[in-house]
Automatic annotation (TrEMBL):
Described purpose of this protein according to its UniProt entry: Decarboxylates L-threonine-O-3-phosphate to yield (R)-1-amino-2-propanol O-2-phosphate, the precursor for the linkage between the nucleotide loop and the corrin ring in cobalamin.
Catalytic activity: O-phospho-L-threonine + H(+) = (R)-1-aminopropan-2-yl phosphate + CO2
Name of the protein: threonine-phosphate decarboxylase
Entry keyword annotation includes Endoplasmic reticulum: no
Keyword flag Phosphoprotein: no
Gene Ontology biological process terms from the UniProt entry: cobalamin biosynthetic process
Pfam families: Aminotran_1_2
Keywords: Cobalamin biosynthesis, Lyase, Pyridoxal phosphate
Names of required cofactors: pyridoxal 5'-phosphate
């Protein structure tokens, strides 16, 4: 089942109200986005220049602290759709439960997919997928573990879509190696940490041969001029990034405290979302929905519920009242 958060229209249709009435905490998207500012007319009117793409790539290398190649794509999801075509279909192993698009995209392209619960079970596969930190439970694997795993599989995909908020979890920029191994692909999402999911921008970090394959699939204009303009500013704004990480850390502790007071148990998560164990996940979601607060539950768990972090004082107040009730 390819269910996702962000389905606010369905929530409003079922529980009432307009979209403006709702607080959407069903995704892990930062609710305090990077300030866009003015966008030059050329970004809308002209095809992106190759030089602008190169500048964007350098900005991403700066933000991620990597010397490997960085390929812009229309969101990490676009890269997930390309990955099955990097090589002939074979046996893939996906560390689960996790973001369901990885297994679905591989199966759609003829891969035999095993969704495994143990890290060691990934070894020996033609292609292995690790979401790190994991969505939705926040599991993290150390760079050294991932480097060792890379030696045992044909191709290792590491989805770091939520690593911007907790950069110490990332394989890139950790000094483990100056360049990634030739069989490793790291995915990064721009929209989640910077709160601009509608920009549809992500990056593939890898070595030159894999980068060439991705660029062949993306074509000459992989992302919009608007995305290039916004992301260049954001990825080089180290002050905003560090301030945001501190705020997210504080807000994470605040949300955990609310949940524990409500009788929920912390399963895990990241600084962008938290996952809790409740007596009944469906009932917990319905309780919040009565207050027009949307959350995320999962088909493989009857008691898990995942929530993003509110972005304003008014939203925190509404959530506090809902949790207390």
């Amino acid at each position: 089942m390819r269910d996702h958060g962000g389905n606010l229209g369905q929530a409003a249709a079922h529980y009432g109200g307009t979209l403006a009435d709702w607080i959407d905490l069903s995704t892990g998207i930062n609710t305090v986005p990077y300030p866009i500012g003015q966008i030059p007319a050329d970004a809308w009117q002209r095809l992106p220049e190759p030089a602008s793409l190169r500048q964007l790539e350098r900005a991403a290398q700066h933000a991620y602290g990597t010397a490997s190649e960085v390929v812009p794509v229309a969101g990490a999801q676009a890269a997930i759709q390309m990955i099955p075509r990097l090589r002939g279909a074979g046996m893939a192993a996906v560390l689960s439960p996790t973001y369901n698009e990885h297994a679905a995209a591989l199966r759609a392209c003829g891969w035999r997919v095993q969704e495994v619960g143990a890290f060691q079970a990934l070894e020996g596969s033609d292609l292995a997928v690790v979401v790190n930190p994991n969505n939705p439970d926040g599991r993290v694997y150390a760079p050294q573990q991932l480097m060792m795993l890379a030696q045992t599989v044909g191709l290792l995909i590491i989805d770091e879509s939520f690593a911007d908020a907790d950069p110490e979890t990332s394989l890139v920029g950790q000094g483990v190696t100056a360049h990634l191994p030739e069989n490793v692909v790291v995915l990064r999402s721009f929209g989640k940490f910077y709160g601009l999911a509608g920009v549809r921008l992500g990056f593939v970090v890898c070595q030159s041969e894999l980068a060439r394959k991705f660029r062949d699939m993306t074509g000459p204009w992989p992302v919009s001029g608007m995305a290039i303009e916004i992301a260049q500013r954001a990825l080089q704004d180290d002050t905003w990034a560090q301030t945001t990480r501190v705020r997210l850390g504080n807000d994470t502790r605040r949300l955990d405290a609310l949940a524990v007071t409500a009788g929920w148990k912390v399963v895990g998560g990241t600084s962008l979302f938290r996952t809790y164990a409740t007596d009944n996940g469906i009932m917990a979601q319905k309780m919040l929905a009565k207050h027009h607060i949307w959350s995320r539950i999962f088909p493989y768990s009857t008691n898990w519920i995942r929530m993003g972090l509110p972005g304003t004082a008014a939203d925190w107040a509404r959530l506090t009242i809902a949790m207390e009730n």
